[in-house]
Amino acid sequence: MTENKYDDSTFLQQDIKDLITENITLIGDSIYFKLDEKKVLTYTLDFLFNKWNYKYLSTIVVIEKEKGFVIKYIINSTTVKKSVIVEVFLDKTNPVFTSIDMIYPVASIFEKEINKKYGIIFEGNPETKNIISNYIEKSGEDS
Amino acid sequence: MIKKFPFIVNNISPDIALGNITFEFNLDGFSFQDLNFNFEYERKNRNRYLKGQSIKTATKLIPKLSFVQSHHFQEVFSLAVEDIYNVKIPDRAKILRMIILEIERISASLLFLSAISSSLGFETFRYWVLKDRENFLSVLKTFKKDENILNDIIVPGGIKKTIYNVEIERLNEFLEKYFERILLDYEKIFFKNISLISKTKNFGVFKKEILRKNNATGLLLRSCGIKFDLRKNAPYEMYKRVDFPIYNFEISDLYNRILSLYLEIKNSITIIKSSLKLLNETSDENILEIIDYEEKIGNRFSFKRIEGVNGELSIYLEVIDSKIEHIKFTSPSFINGLLLMNKLEGDYKLFDIPAIYSSLFIVPMEVYL
């Protein structure tokens, strides 16, 4: 029987390189990578959730920049010790993004908070709404 | 008839926070449905408050974010700063940090126990617990003499003050002669009390799948039979070198959640005792590694998590040349307060709410950070 030369996170890193992106960085105890297209996010998280047991969404961090928002999803596993940080960029001209509450139910309250602070709308999450259109709906005012 | 009620749980002093905790629910007969918590007061954006501050200034401000686990906040912040500056702290500082954290865990568990016992009508026990908590905090003061509890003893790079042999003996003596005996009394009077058991067994049950799905951590997760503790599964400081059992139960009912506090205290005592032994093994070396904040490090970030007193406490810290660019704490109170209470299944009455609410270990200040 051959000896297993890789620990979990080495396999994981190789898997991410093969299937998602080659540009991954190790920062402390975390594996960090950027996604060029926001469409890939759901697929990436779903892959990490099911294959690598990353079933715990620690937090969603939003950093406001001049042109848009940097959104970082930080997920953790009960089997692999390293955290994974997935970064996506969202343009300010169209601050609409996909909700991930189908994968992580807890994401709904994180997204709700982000919606209140930064106005980003997460499609599929009924609690995040366009604040202005919601106001018009409620007050009945319409220009 | 179904009617919406606002009901005030806690009226917090405006010095600490602005506003009330309220919750809305639909009332069907005497049973509530669709419960929603509002922590309206804490809408301040802490990131804006700390953004642009230097790390030195932030070190003094961080402990004020929580009145229950201020040292844990300092710890997780220090770990992130040390990670960013690639600093390795001395072993003695690591052990001292562990002792301080475990003392705080005991004091916090006693505080949670006082809240739960009060909501269940055990008023005498509540005052007893609070008195013992004060005694315990006075032990914490041996590290810091007569300084304020919220003072920053854990700092990036190590620890501010050392613990002397006389203080080690005093702490050991306090644990052995006083505190462990008191715990036996707690067991007889409270934990094995028939009236407590009949009130709390199979009451306020959260299903295992619900807790697992909704990011429950720490005590709550362990109370439903999932053996997970960050001190064991992803150890930081010197937790690798101390041995303690991870308890678990079959179902997460109110009684098991209360009992988990008791077991948590027992575990903390075990950890403190083995840490004190470890402390004797280390030589009297430096306890503070000085970090050069003048160094131009550019843009760096770090994510760290530790086992807080009520679950996983995490920080995301981004720094540009020793100035904080972005900081975000995520406390279990955020998830427990806003999500879990709504997932409660079963027929519960209005007067059941305070007991179940207090068993979720929510620290109001930590809900919005």
Secondary-structure blueprint of this entry?
The complex is a heterodimer of chains A (143) and B (369).
Chain A: H1 8-19, E1 24-27, E2 30-35, H2 40-51, E3 56-64, E4 68-76, E5 83-91, E6 96-98, H3 107-118, E7 121-123, H4 131-139
Chain B: E1 2-11, E2 20-28, E3 31-39, H1 46-50, H2 55-61, H3 70-84, H4 91-119, H5 123-144, E4 154-155, E5 158-159, H6 165-191, H7 194-200, H8 208-213, H9 218-222, H10 230-233, H11 254-281, E6 299-307, E7 312-320, E8 323-330, H12 332-340, H13 353-358
Antiparallel strand pairs in B: 1-2, 2-3, 4-5, 6-7, 7-8
GO molecular function (chain A): NADH dehydrogenase (ubiquinone) activity
Pfam family, one (chain A): Complex1_30kDa
Domain NADH:ubiquinone oxidoreductase 30kDa subunit (chain A): 41-133
Describe what is shown at a glance.
The complex is a heterodimer of chains A (143) and B (369). Chain A has 143 residues and is of the alpha/beta class.
What does this structure look like?
- The complex is a heterodimer of chains A (143) and B (369).
- In chain A, strand 6 (96-98), helix 3 and strand 7 form a beta-alpha-beta unit.
- Chain A has a single domain (8-139), classed as Beta Polymerase, domain 2, CATH 3.30.460.
- Chain A is an alpha/beta fold and 143 residues long.
- In chain A, 31% of the residues lie in helices and 30% in strands.
- Chain A has a five-stranded mixed beta sheet with strand order 1-2-5-4-3, with helices on one face.
- The longest helix of chain A has 12 residues, at 8-19.
- The N and C termini of chain A lie far apart (74 Å).
- Chain A has helices at residues 8-19, 40-51, 107-118, 131-139; strands spanning 24-27, 30-35, 56-64, 68-76, 83-91, 96-98, 121-123.
- Chain A contains four helices and seven strands; from the N terminus they run H-E-E-H-E-E-E-E-H-E-H.
- Chain B is α+β, with helices and mostly antiparallel strands.
- Chain B has a single domain, classed as Cytochrome-c3 Hydrogenase, chain B, CATH 1.10.645.10.
- Chain B has 13 helices and eight strands.
- In chain B, the strands form three sheets. Chain B has a three-stranded antiparallel beta sheet, with no helix packed on it. A three-stranded antiparallel beta sheet of chain B has the order 6-7-8. A two-stranded antiparallel ribbon of chain B has the order 4-5.
- Chain B is globular and about 65 Å long.
- The two termini of chain B are 38 Å apart.
- Chain A: One of its GO terms (molecular function) is NADH dehydrogenase (ubiquinone) activity.
- Chain A: It holds the Pfam family Complex1_30kDa.
- Chain A: This is NADH-quinone oxidoreductase subunit C.
